Amino acid sequence: MSTIQKVNFEPVSDILPVQRRDLSLADKSLADPLNAAAIIDGEWLTIDGAYKWIRASAIATPGNAATVRSFPCFLERGRTDRLGMAERKTTCLFRGEYEFDTRVYDASATVGSGAPITTVLQPLKVATITIGTRNFTGLVGHGGAADTNPVVGYVTRLPAVNGGKLRFISGYRS
To answer: Tens-digit pLDDT profile for the chain (174 aa)?
Structure first.
Protein backbone atom coordinates (compact mmCIF):
# COMPACT_ATOMS: atom_id res chain seq x y z
CA MET A 1 0.00 0.00 0.00
CA SER A 2 1.27 3.45 -0.80
CA THR A 3 1.17 6.71 1.14
CA ILE A 4 -0.05 10.09 -0.06
CA GLN A 5 2.47 12.93 -0.06
CA LYS A 6 2.77 16.36 -1.61
CA VAL A 7 4.03 14.94 -4.92
CA ASN A 8 2.24 11.72 -5.86
CA PHE A 9 2.70 11.58 -9.62
CA GLU A 10 6.12 12.13 -11.22
CA PRO A 11 7.26 11.68 -14.83
CA VAL A 12 10.19 9.33 -15.32
CA SER A 13 11.49 11.60 -18.08
CA ASP A 14 11.00 15.33 -18.47
CA ILE A 15 10.45 14.85 -22.20
CA LEU A 16 7.06 13.26 -22.76
CA PRO A 17 5.13 13.13 -26.05
CA VAL A 18 1.78 13.93 -24.43
CA GLN A 19 -1.11 16.28 -24.86
CA ARG A 20 -2.52 17.75 -21.69
CA ARG A 21 -6.07 18.94 -21.40
CA ASP A 22 -7.18 21.70 -19.02
CA LEU A 23 -10.91 21.37 -18.37
CA SER A 24 -13.23 22.68 -15.69
CA LEU A 25 -14.17 20.43 -12.82
CA ALA A 26 -17.85 19.50 -12.62
CA ASP A 27 -17.55 20.01 -8.84
CA LYS A 28 -15.46 23.16 -8.40
CA SER A 29 -14.94 22.48 -4.68
CA LEU A 30 -12.61 19.59 -5.60
CA ALA A 31 -9.98 22.16 -6.63
CA ASP A 32 -9.84 23.58 -3.11
CA PRO A 33 -6.82 22.04 -1.31
CA LEU A 34 -8.64 22.49 2.02
CA ASN A 35 -11.51 20.26 0.85
CA ALA A 36 -11.12 16.83 2.45
CA ALA A 37 -12.08 15.23 -0.89
CA ALA A 38 -9.87 17.45 -3.08
CA ILE A 39 -8.46 15.86 -6.21
CA ILE A 40 -4.74 15.14 -5.92
CA ASP A 41 -2.11 14.59 -8.58
CA GLY A 42 -2.16 11.02 -9.81
CA GLU A 43 -5.92 10.52 -9.37
CA TRP A 44 -7.83 9.41 -12.45
CA LEU A 45 -10.62 11.49 -14.00
CA THR A 46 -13.00 11.13 -16.92
CA ILE A 47 -15.15 13.53 -18.91
CA ASP A 48 -18.86 13.97 -18.25
CA GLY A 49 -21.56 14.97 -20.75
CA ALA A 50 -20.84 18.67 -20.14
CA TYR A 51 -17.13 18.22 -21.09
CA LYS A 52 -15.96 18.63 -17.50
CA TRP A 53 -13.68 16.48 -15.36
CA ILE A 54 -15.23 14.09 -12.83
CA ARG A 55 -13.63 11.25 -10.89
CA ALA A 56 -13.42 8.07 -12.95
CA SER A 57 -15.21 6.07 -10.26
CA ALA A 58 -17.44 6.98 -7.35
CA ILE A 59 -15.18 7.29 -4.32
CA ALA A 60 -17.86 6.64 -1.71
CA THR A 61 -17.12 2.90 -1.69
CA PRO A 62 -13.72 1.25 -2.27
CA GLY A 63 -13.74 -1.32 -5.05
CA ASN A 64 -15.77 0.62 -7.63
CA ALA A 65 -14.01 0.10 -10.96
CA ALA A 66 -13.84 2.74 -13.68
CA THR A 67 -15.83 1.46 -16.64
CA VAL A 68 -14.89 4.23 -19.10
CA ARG A 69 -11.63 5.63 -20.42
CA SER A 70 -9.93 7.73 -17.76
CA PHE A 71 -6.98 10.10 -17.54
CA PRO A 72 -4.43 10.85 -14.80
CA CYS A 73 -4.53 14.25 -13.11
CA PHE A 74 -1.19 16.02 -13.41
CA LEU A 75 -1.60 18.96 -11.04
CA GLU A 76 -0.26 18.86 -7.51
CA ARG A 77 -2.55 19.29 -4.51
CA GLY A 78 -1.99 22.66 -2.92
CA ARG A 79 -1.29 24.55 -6.14
CA THR A 80 -3.21 27.79 -5.88
CA ASP A 81 -3.14 28.77 -9.55
CA ARG A 82 -6.20 26.63 -10.28
CA LEU A 83 -8.09 28.36 -7.45
CA GLY A 84 -7.63 31.73 -9.16
CA MET A 85 -9.44 30.58 -12.27
CA ALA A 86 -13.19 31.14 -12.25
CA GLU A 87 -13.65 27.84 -14.07
CA ARG A 88 -11.57 25.90 -11.51
CA LYS A 89 -9.78 23.92 -14.20
CA THR A 90 -7.44 21.04 -13.67
CA THR A 91 -4.95 19.33 -15.98
CA CYS A 92 -4.95 15.70 -17.08
CA LEU A 93 -2.73 13.78 -19.48
CA PHE A 94 -5.13 13.38 -22.38
CA ARG A 95 -3.24 11.72 -25.24
CA GLY A 96 0.16 10.25 -25.88
CA GLU A 97 2.52 7.78 -24.31
CA TYR A 98 4.19 8.37 -20.98
CA GLU A 99 5.87 6.66 -18.04
CA PHE A 100 5.19 7.85 -14.48
CA ASP A 101 5.87 6.93 -10.87
CA THR A 102 2.70 7.11 -8.77
CA ARG A 103 1.73 6.78 -5.13
CA VAL A 104 -1.99 6.54 -5.95
CA TYR A 105 -2.37 2.75 -6.23
CA ASP A 106 -3.29 -0.32 -4.20
CA ALA A 107 -1.07 -3.26 -5.09
CA SER A 108 -3.07 -5.75 -3.01
CA ALA A 109 -6.58 -4.85 -4.26
CA THR A 110 -8.59 -7.35 -6.29
CA VAL A 111 -11.40 -5.28 -7.78
CA GLY A 112 -13.92 -7.32 -9.78
CA SER A 113 -11.94 -9.76 -11.96
CA GLY A 114 -8.71 -7.94 -11.11
CA ALA A 115 -5.57 -9.36 -9.58
CA PRO A 116 -3.01 -7.99 -7.10
CA ILE A 117 -0.12 -6.07 -8.69
CA THR A 118 2.78 -8.55 -8.65
CA THR A 119 4.64 -8.55 -11.97
CA VAL A 120 6.29 -6.23 -14.44
CA LEU A 121 4.17 -5.57 -17.58
CA GLN A 122 1.00 -6.55 -15.73
CA PRO A 123 -1.97 -4.53 -17.04
CA LEU A 124 -3.55 -1.90 -14.77
CA LYS A 125 -7.04 -0.44 -14.39
CA VAL A 126 -8.61 2.34 -12.33
CA ALA A 127 -10.77 1.80 -9.24
CA THR A 128 -11.70 3.44 -5.96
CA ILE A 129 -8.98 2.67 -3.42
CA THR A 130 -8.36 3.63 0.18
CA ILE A 131 -5.05 5.11 1.29
CA GLY A 132 -4.88 5.95 4.98
CA THR A 133 -8.42 6.98 5.87
CA ARG A 134 -9.41 8.50 2.54
CA ASN A 135 -10.69 7.15 -0.78
CA PHE A 136 -9.15 8.04 -4.16
CA THR A 137 -9.39 6.94 -7.80
CA GLY A 138 -6.15 5.05 -8.34
CA LEU A 139 -4.48 2.11 -10.01
CA VAL A 140 -5.13 -1.57 -9.27
CA GLY A 141 -4.25 -4.76 -11.11
CA HIS A 142 -6.29 -5.72 -14.18
CA GLY A 143 -7.54 -9.29 -14.47
CA GLY A 144 -6.67 -9.97 -18.11
CA ALA A 145 -9.16 -11.44 -20.58
CA ALA A 146 -11.86 -12.02 -17.94
CA ASP A 147 -11.76 -8.34 -16.90
CA THR A 148 -13.90 -6.01 -19.03
CA ASN A 149 -12.65 -2.76 -17.45
CA PRO A 150 -10.35 -0.55 -19.58
CA VAL A 151 -6.59 -1.09 -19.33
CA VAL A 152 -4.91 2.26 -18.58
CA GLY A 153 -1.30 1.15 -18.36
CA TYR A 154 1.28 -1.54 -17.67
CA VAL A 155 3.63 -1.97 -14.71
CA THR A 156 7.27 -1.20 -15.51
CA ARG A 157 8.65 -1.19 -11.96
CA LEU A 158 7.18 -2.66 -8.79
CA PRO A 159 6.93 -0.55 -5.62
CA ALA A 160 9.24 -2.89 -3.65
CA VAL A 161 12.18 -1.87 -5.86
CA ASN A 162 11.08 1.72 -6.56
CA GLY A 163 10.92 3.45 -3.17
CA GLY A 164 7.26 2.52 -2.61
CA LYS A 165 6.09 4.08 -5.89
CA LEU A 166 4.48 2.12 -8.72
CA ARG A 167 5.99 2.85 -12.15
CA PHE A 168 3.82 2.35 -15.22
CA ILE A 169 3.60 3.20 -18.89
CA SER A 170 0.40 4.42 -20.49
CA GLY A 171 -1.84 1.83 -22.05
CA TYR A 172 -3.77 3.89 -24.57
CA ARG A 173 -2.52 4.39 -28.07
CA SER A 174 -3.47 7.70 -29.62
So the answer is: 567 777 889 889 876 677 788 888 999 888 887 888 988 899 999 999 999 999 999 898 899 999 999 999 987 555 556 555 666 778 888 888 889 999 999 999 999 888 999 999 999 999 999 999 999 999 999 988 889 999 999 999 999 999 999 999 998 644
Is residue 170 within 8 A of residue 152, CB to CB? The reply is yes
Residue 109: which of 135, 130, 136, 132 has the closest Cα?
Answer: 130
What's this model's pTM, rounded to 2 decimal places?
0.89
Domain boundaries in the chain?
Answer: 9-170
Nearest to 172 by CA among 59, 44, 63: 44
- C-alpha 41/C-alpha 91 separation (Å) is 9
